[in-house]
Write the structure tokens for this entry.
Amino acid sequence: MHGSRFNCAVAACGALVMMASSGNLTAAELRLLAGGAMTTVWAELKPKFEDASGHKLNIFFGTTPNLIKEATSGKAFDLAVVPVDVMKDAAAQAKFAPGPTIDIAYVGLGVAVRSGAQKPHIATADALKATLLNASSIASIPESATGYSIARAFDRLGINEEMKARIKAQPNPAQVVAVVAKGEVELGIFLLNVLTAPGLDVVGPFPDELQENVVFTAAIAADSKQAAAAKTLIDYLKSPPAVTAIKAKGMNPS
């Protein structure tokens, strides 16, 4: 047990020493494309990474379509930590250095209600189906990696058509939380880490037979002029302090 803690401490210190050294030599400003569902993770990790490395992060948050558009817009960027669906787009994938991407975190789908509201039953596929059909309105982001996963669940339940009138599309994860917390929309369906927020009560995850994890993966831009600094950030995301922060924000480190 003590050895395990010691090894983690050594790894953490090693990551920090490496970053501090690279920061003293060539401090960089990195432009990062990031999935919006990791906003709270980056709120914690950004200042810690900047302090430890000397590098600065300029983060563009977006949904999968927005991230694909940004990556292929011609604007310079250095790396991305995005849903794997971004990499399934050939034009976007071409903007990244060849080779495998590095998975950083994953999280599953869930349901939430306004704090204090009665929690519906969702433990089985039939129960979730009944809850969705009984809901007057549902907040989500259909045009996102999460939205695509939710649509596949609707398809397996045979309720795609019925859901079209109930889904209230939101522009970003924060708005999914806001409209449910205010009581403007009855249910929120999105990633569990996003739904774990003030103003909401999480009902629970999707049943196992309908559950899909959204994986966030990292890659360096093919034409980045700061590739070494970008790699330092990816290494940091695998360090014990970053893993602890990822877990604390309701995500699972990959």
The radius of gyration is 19 Å. The CA atoms of residues 48 and 242 lie 9 Å apart. Residues 2-25 form the longest helix (24 residues). The mean pLDDT is 91.
